[in-house]
């Protein structure tokens, strides 16, 4: 009986071990994903409602009552539509039971292959670098706005209140150095939820202040169906260039396709990830579009053709100063989280490649357990510590050299919108579904793709022209107004 008992015990033990493996790991052998519709929606809202919302009143002012909202709705529809195509490509060859793809590049490799994989990598990671630089600029502007708001309240609205943004860029960078040690996307849910709450808060404050200003007694500003007036507000050439730049700003306001696959890779297996991601995209895009339309149109109604580039830091509002301060603190806190949402895919890409190439290096692969007070044990990787710190420092230095808010947002939006939000999702959908060439579906998808290319090119041209103009009058490392 003893041998039989021992045999049964071993059998039960083995079954328990298998059960533990199945319980703790997904079908690809990786740690079980725990993301839900809520966490995915929070990631999307954190990525989408960002600094872009602050420039929408200015963008509507350039385009007017007709073209402004129309462009906003067009970008929201295109972004949602192509995000559903991209969500279906997370697994290949089928969206439900196919092999997982962990990054945007992996998705392109599975469906398209060839040189397009390299082009996707260049577009995605250059965009992620640009976004993190843009967020460093915006966060510092918001922190400076708190100081300037208190200064204006104390000394009057005509005071100069010149304050340098560079110390605040350094403070932001120090915070990011610490948060960048969060190992991966799967550990970011709490930060994204906090950032999403902050984004709703400051957008709501901006909206409320705009309504109060627009509804105020004796309030009158100049608005029109076509926006800024040639010969009055701007010259003919300025109207064209600023309209192009406004389109780029709106494109930037919807930029989250660069991190969609990484967000989807955090979702649990059931229900199917593609279905949950589509629902999260609908929730995220529809919610943000509502905020964007309200902030853009009511902001335009409040400020008219003189709308500031950033309606919470451009001091269209001075009072109540404490509410302006609170809104700008919320912006800074939100951008702390948004920075991490956008840089984690880049961190993961570089670290995965280095692990593959130098798998024998203890500097790159070894983890060291460190006891952190109140937080328990944390595993420190020296390569992660050095490389991520260096990345944050470099982006902060670039932000200090080129602190141009609107021009920078427009250029990033224009450069990333076409390849990452439109071209690759459409091409992969055609390949995945094996849509026949020159069929009706193939033709209209191609028309959409080419139209978006033209829009991206004119938006990029406007933003580049704006950057060139700003550089003519700019002295690096001087105090910014």
Descriptors:
481 residues, Amino acid/polyamine transporter I, two-stranded antiparallel ribbon, globular
How would you describe the overall organization of this protein?
With 481 residues, this protein is mostly helical. It has a single domain, classed as Amino acid/polyamine transporter I (Up-down Bundle). Helices cover 69% and strands 3% of the residues. It contains 15 helices and four strands. It has helices at 2-24, 37-48, 56-88, 104-111, 115-155, 166-179, 189-214, 236-253, 260-264, 273-303, 321-357, 362-365, 382-401, 405-433, 440-472, and strands at 91-92, 99-100, 368-372, 376-380. A two-stranded antiparallel sheet has the order 1-2. A hairpin with a 6-residue loop joins strand 1 (91-92) and strand 2 (99-100). Helix 4 (104-111) packs antiparallel against helix 5 (115-155). The longest helix has 41 residues, at 115-155. It is globular, with a radius of gyration of 24 Å. The model is unreliable at 4-19 (pLDDT under 50).
